[in-house]
Amino acid sequence: MNRLAYLQQLVETYGPFLDELTPETTFEEMNMDSYAVVDFILKVEEHFNIVMHNDDILALKSMQDVLDMIDRCSKEEEVTC
Q: Disulfide engineering: 73 pairs with which of 3, 50, 54, 66, CB 3.0-4.6 Å?
């Protein structure tokens, strides 16, 4: 399963926000409040075995931002990126 497909599957657990998730889809478009976003990111971190800095999490606005962060963190040698 590719990363965007996983994010789509995960988003669906929060409710029927959109028919299809694209990289340009934002948390705002999905009407996810800050608690849902944090929970979403925690599940992403767990699934991909990464840890994002809090400041980086606050900067995430779209699924492309999340995908980019997954890529960046997956390439880092340290536990956190």
A: 50
